[in-house]
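Translate structure to sequence.
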């Protein structure tokens, strides 16, 4: 649970780092010499820097290499190797806590740290997660240990645990916090959060006063013009220094949100009504009442209004869906253009005199370039992927190693500089923008690809919400049309009915009423 510090997504990411370390570090650690040590430093730093946690959120990640007896040999962070390694008491404490579990069942051990294994006071819970693996893996003798420790830093408001849902396996609770935002406050200060709706770093005085007298309460709040429903719960006695307050926030239901529920209820009602209507037609047909010999004028008017309302709703809905889809695609195209222009500007700043951009991209490290522009990048030559900043996704088979055929045709045969195409990770669909870096003859030498994973997910959510509002409003319009039809039908049918009654009376010789 969040209150206990458990997050299955973090545990999954640590396990991935240990698996990569078992493959990449086993040989360099068995080799002596300065070259082997330099290679170990490079590989270990790259493993930490490319881990999902360090690349997708603000986490303090540390990888330690220990001797068979537990003596610290080297330690690494995303910034490189640490100089003062032997003084880290936390690594030895964590190793002592996890080693018994490893000896009982050799293999990757990934756990949340017990309180006695933390380097600072238990209330601070310095490193909350850790993983241990012996090298070489799956053997009785251990030549070296790899220890990975991770702690959510003092997070800024709006940050979360950072592992995007499309990068996680099935059953990993990717939708657990889709609408909820959770936060923990200690001494009134935010120490960690999940979600994006906690916008303050401290509890407000009014909330702290209520927590003095009550351990839990609900409260409606307005943040930047949007209404939320928040639940505060204090754990532990109020005078205890180690007590903390957990807060759960969810967007309040607004007037427009009711359109979404109206949409679902109306669609369900229409489906049930259609079944009942078809059954009624069948029964009337079997009894010989269809086709009807006579239809009342009022019913004709109501049927006409119903047909007009349904046709109008369908037409406006189709047009609206196309408008929303087209606008989303234009937004994505514009974002990809801006991203690729930023990449070209960065390459131009690195270029020497008369040096083409494709040569700059070829000599630059793709991770360095991706870090400078703040994007994930793919680099293709002759239609084949040669470098990527998402090496982990490539190893897991989630990134295609070849340029899509349609994109290759557009860039090489049709001589377009920019092309976008759809890609998939499992069932999740997103778009990738491609730009050709050309030589002096205008032929593509390299192709840069920029995926829009996180942007696409956000746009899909906005599109679904917009369509729900659209069809909810259209259904409301149909209801208004039908009510108007009832009023007009009664207004038109009543005088006609009176005229008919008068004509029938005249035909029968009654000239007075």
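Result:
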């Amino acid at each position: 649970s969040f209150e206990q510090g458990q997050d299955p997504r973090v545990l999954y990411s640590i396990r991935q780092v240990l698996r990569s370390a078992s493959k990449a570090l086993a040989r360099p650690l068995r080799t002596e010499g300065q070259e082997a040590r330099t290679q170990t430093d490079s590989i270990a730093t790259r493993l930490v820097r490319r881990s999902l946690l360090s690349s997708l959120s603000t986490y303090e990640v540390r990888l330690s290499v220990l001797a068979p007896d537990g003596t610290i040999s080297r330690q690494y962070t995303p910034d490189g190797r640490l100089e003062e390694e032997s003084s880290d008491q936390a690594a030895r404490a964590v190793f002592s806590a996890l080693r018994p579990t490893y000896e009982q069942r050799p293999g990757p051990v990934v756990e949340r740290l017990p309180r006695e294994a933390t380097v600072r006071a238990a209330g601070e819970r310095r490193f909350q997660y850790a993983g241990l693996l012996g090298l070489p893996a799956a053997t009785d003798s251990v030549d070296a240990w790899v220890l990975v420790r991770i702690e959510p830093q003092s997070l800024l408001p709006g940050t979360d645990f950072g592992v995007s849902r499309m990068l996680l396996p099935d059953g990993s609770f990717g939708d657990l916090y889709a609408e909820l935002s959770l936060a923990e406050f200690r001494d009134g200060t935010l120490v960690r959060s999940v979600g994006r709706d906690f916008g303050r770093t401290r509890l407000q005085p009014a909330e702290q006063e209520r927590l003095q007298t009550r351990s839990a309460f609900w409260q409606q709040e307005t943040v930047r013009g949007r209404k939320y429903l928040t639940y505060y719960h204090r754990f532990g006695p109020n005078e205890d220094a180690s007590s903390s307050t957990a807060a759960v926030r969810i967007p309040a239901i607004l007037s427009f949100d009711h359109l979404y529920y109206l949409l679902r209820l109306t669609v369900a009602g229409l489906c049930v009504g259609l079944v009942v209507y078809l059954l009624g037609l069948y029964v009337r047909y079997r009894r010989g009442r269809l086709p009807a010999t006579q239809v009342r004028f009022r019913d004709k008017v109501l049927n006409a209004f119903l047909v007009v309302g349904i046709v109008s709703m369908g037409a406006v809905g189709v047009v609206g869906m196309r408008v929303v889809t087209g606008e989303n695609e234009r937004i994505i195209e514009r974002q990809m253009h801006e991203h690729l222009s930023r990449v070209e500007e960065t390459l131009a700043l690195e270029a020497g005199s008369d040096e083409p951009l494709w040569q700059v991209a070829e000599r630059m490290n793709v991770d360095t370039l991706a870090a400078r522009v703040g994007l994930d990048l793919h680099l293709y030559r002759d239609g084949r992927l040669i470098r990527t900043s998402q090496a982990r996704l490539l190893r897991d088979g989630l990134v295609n190693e070849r340029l899509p055929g349609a994109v290759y045709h557009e860039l090489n045969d049709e001589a377009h500089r920019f092309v976008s195409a759809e890609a998939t990770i499992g069932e999740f669909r997103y778009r990738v923008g491609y730009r050709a870096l050309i030589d002096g003859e205008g032929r593509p030498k390299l192709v840069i690809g920029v995926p829009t994973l996180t942007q696409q997910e956000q746009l899909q959510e906005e599109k679904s919400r917009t369509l729900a509002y659209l069809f909810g409003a259209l259904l409301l319009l149909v209801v208004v049309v039908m009510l108007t039809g009832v009023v007009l039908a009664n207004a038109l049918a009543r005088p006609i009915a009176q005229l008919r009654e008068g004509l029938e009376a005249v035909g029968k010789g009654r000239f007075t009423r």
